[in-house]
Every structure is written in structure tokens, then in C-alpha cells.
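Dear colleague,

Thank you for sharing your sequence with our group. We've completed the structure prediction you requested, and as agreed, I am returning the results in plain text so they can be pasted directly into your records. Please verify that the sequence below matches your submission; if there's any discrepancy, let me know and we will rerun it promptly.
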Amino acid sequence: MNRLKSVYEKFRYPIVLVYFLMMTLLMTYPLILHLGKSILGGLGDGVYFVWLIRWYQGVIFEGWGAPFFNAQMNYPQGWNLSTTDTALATALPGVPFSLLFGPIAGYNIAMGLTFILSGFFMYLWVRRQTASDSAGLIAGTIFAFLPYRMAHFMAGHLNLSGTAWFPLYFFAIQEIFTPKEKNRWWPPLLGGVALGLIGLSSMYYLYFTLLVSVLFLAGYLLFSKRGFLRNKNFWQELILLPVFSAPFLFVALRPFLQLAGSGGLADRPLEYANRYSASPTDFFTVSADHFALGQWISSILDRSLWMESSLYIGLGTLLLIAFYWYSRKGDRQLSFAKTALFIMLVCFILALGPSLHWNNQQLLIPNAVGETLPITLPATWLFTFLPFFSKMRAVMRIGLFVLLFGSALAGLGSAKLLNRWNGWRRILVLSVILLVILLDFYPGPYTQSVTPIQARAVDTWLAEQPGDGAVVQMPFGNSTDQIQLYYTLTHRKPFTGGFFNANQPPQFQYLQGIMERFPDEKSVQTLAEYKVEFVLLEPDDFADYPNVEATIIELGLERLTEIDGVVVFHLEPDNGTQP
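Please find the predicted C-alpha cells below.
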């Protein structure tokens, strides 16, 4: 026993990292068996991030262009990648693996790293608070494998999976709020870098983190003795934090602020925000993909927004928080614990959106004149008056901070609980807690969700064609499918489409109405003006394909070939007209 303890203390951090690696392989199984050829969850957003990792690889090593602007997409206007999250902090770790094993493996490994680092950094934060490795391990396991994280993993949201930086940031903030006798450089440096990495993962996360930072300050003002306000080291460290974060935030914010200033980031109507609001039940019922109870809970509750509404805190988490509160007397972390509960409560209310919902339905109450009105919540005020809040598409994502601070509090509770045992009894209790957490969150094997990604034969054929004429996929709505981005990695020709889920560029909005009538004279003429040379379509996408093809040929396009069900027409570009 003593020898094992000695080995663990010597190799503590590598052992913990290996633990989170093994748990990641288990929770994402069988992805490890398909690392370089498939992703999980279908040909959705994950494909975009596969393409993005390959794009960054090309920018860094092959001179493809600027990181946040792709001149070959949305051709000829080009595509500002800041219309969606650029996710540098989570995508760049995949680039070395993309170089070695290809972009699919790069994406899968980058996604796996978000689990390992989220767990490890939460472990470090809680271990610092409790001096307990076991408590850190429990908190890290909760945070790494939250249903929220598993849902966004399945959805392919590499940006929203970049949660590892939150424990580091609030670890540093907590250190700043508990200043020591001498000034320290590492808390503001750690906090500044972590805040920058949050900004380089997701604008949602950066915006909400800044809001929660204000709540953190308010909580400490309310629940501590406020001695930190009289400590000059506190003020020095607090001032240094934005200084250290500034270079990272400049890189993260500059393209978004430029885009917002030019009208490229759309405001969301209040009705839209209401559609992406949480229900209270989302926090207290198992996720829709739970291996044992998911199907049953989905038959009772509306889980149509399961990707966003998987906000389950966890039964084990709630019990450990309750145990901490029961045994909190005299605890040196009590100010933090009260602040954490305060943040959880506020973020829970904000995640409910502009008006109260139950089971994904807006609750309405009658007024004095017999009308029915929604139950207005504080997010309505933020939506109306707080700058940029109306650009947040899914308000419920602030619910992540309920889960973040819930994980930390569960770590405090587990430290209290485990202190009651020693030796093998302590290990046994630790193992039981970890098993309960994993069974509470486990989605089951993802065997049915493995989705191979590969280029089409027609993309290889296109790559062999001379010239730099653009490619368009018809019907035009298909040009925004994420898989079309992946195909460009093979044919390497300009493409009129792109992934415009959140904010559609002006050129695409203009073309969309015209291309809905394809094939007609106006649509063909416009394609020629936009330097399109290759028009691709699949006959099954058209109800009366023989007549469609006849019309295309009558309009002057040449049928070049058909490869594996994809028909290619050639259009002579209009080189005398600039769109």
C-alpha cells in the first residue's frame, strides 16, 4: 500500500492524465477503432471542423491564406470564417495529428483532448482547494463527461467542446480573490491565458465568461469578509489579468468585432431566443442518449433540442453538493462555495431564456382581460439592453456554468466525504462514487453513430481538370452542407458555397433567391458571371430530372460526365463581367 502511494505521488500527474485518457476511450467507444476514417454523429458540424483543421494546416504549412478568411469559399466574394466560431484553441491541437494521420484523425484526437484536458484541469482546480487527489478526480470525471459535453461531442461541436479552459480561468480568479502576502505573477498569467483560450474557442463562451466573472466578483463581495479589497496584491494581480489576456483576445475579438461592425453578425429576435431556452427539467433529468433511461425519458419529455438541452447536473453531483452543504461548518472554502451556488442559481435562471418554459413549451398565464402572456424572465432585460446579448443564438448554453460550478462543489463535497475513511475503504468509496457518476452519464457504445467520411470519385476527377473555374452544387441549398467543404479538400477548386449556418454572407443571400429557380436563363447567366465552370447535381434531388437535364442543355451547358451518380455540366464563365 505504501509503495503504491509512493509511486502515485511520484507520477501523480501522468497517472491522472492516463486515467482521463482511458475514460475518454471508454466513453467515446468505438471511435478509437475508426480514428482516421470516421467521426461520430453523422455528416454534420463535425465535418466542418475536420475541414477547419485541414484549413489551418494549409494556412500554417502550405501558405493557403489568412486564418480567418478563405477566398476559395463563397467564391468569388470569399468567406469570413468569423461568421461562425473559428475555434483556434480547440482546432490547432489537431493540426499536428492531421499532418501525421490526416484531418479526420486530427479532428477526432482534438475532440478527445477536450475530454482529457477538461477533466485534468478541473482535477487541478479542486485539488488546489481541497488538497485531495480523490476529490479532484471525482470533480474532473463529472466535468469531463457531463451529458452537455457528450451531446456536443456527438453533434460535432469542437468549439463548444472546448471547456478545458474554464477550470483554469476560475482557478486563477479564485487565487486572485484570496491574495497572499506577496505579489504573484502566475494567477493573472494563468487567468489571462485561459481567458484568451476561451475567446479562441467560442465567442459564446467568452461573452458568458465575462458575465459570470462579474457574478464571481459580486458573490465574493456578498459572501466573504471583503478583506481582499484592502490588499494591494489583489489589485495588482487583478490589473495584470487583462494585460496578459489582451494579445489572445485581440486575435479572437478583432475579426468578430469587424464583422459585427459591418452588419455581418445578425441580431436574433426574441422569439428565436425563446426557441433555444432551457426548461427546468433539462437540469434534473438524465440525457436523451443515456444507455438505460434515455429512450424512456424521451418518451415522457420533449427532447427535440437534445443537443442544447442536455444540461443534466447528475444525481451524484447533487448528492455531493448536498453533503458539502450539510458539513460546511468551518470550511475554509465556504466563501467560494456560496459564490459558486450564487453563480449556479443566476445562470440557471438565465439559461431559462427570455420567458419560462416547461418541457420545451412556453408557459402562458392569463391576464385581467383574458389574454395569455408569457412569464417574463431576466434574460429579456439582458436581451434588450446588454450589448451583443441579442447575437447569442442559444441562450441556454449559459447553463454550462451551472454544471461547471456544480462539478467544483461536488469536489468539495467528495473531499468532506472521503475524509471519513482511510486506506482501502477510502479507495472503495472513491471507486463507488466514480462508478455512480459514469453510470449516470454513460450514453452507451456509439456503434450505430460511426460515420465514414470520404471524398467522391467526382472530386478526384475535378482535381484533374485544368483551370481555376468555380464549382457549384445543385440544388443550391446543398452548397451549405458541411460535407461539401470536405469535398473541396480533394478537388481544390473555388466553391460558391460554404457552411453558413449562423450568419449568411451577402453574396449567398443574393444568390439563394436566384438559384431557387435553377435551371432558368437568369440563374445560368448569374453562375457564368460568378465564374462558375462546373455545375454538379445528383438526379435523385430533382423530381423531373430528364426535363431538368434537357433544360440545362438548352441553356448552353455541356454535359461532361456522370460519376457514381453525380452529373457534371460545364458552363463557360463570363470573363467580361464582374459580379
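Summary note from our side: The chain is about 55% helix and 5% strand.

Kind regards,
the structure core
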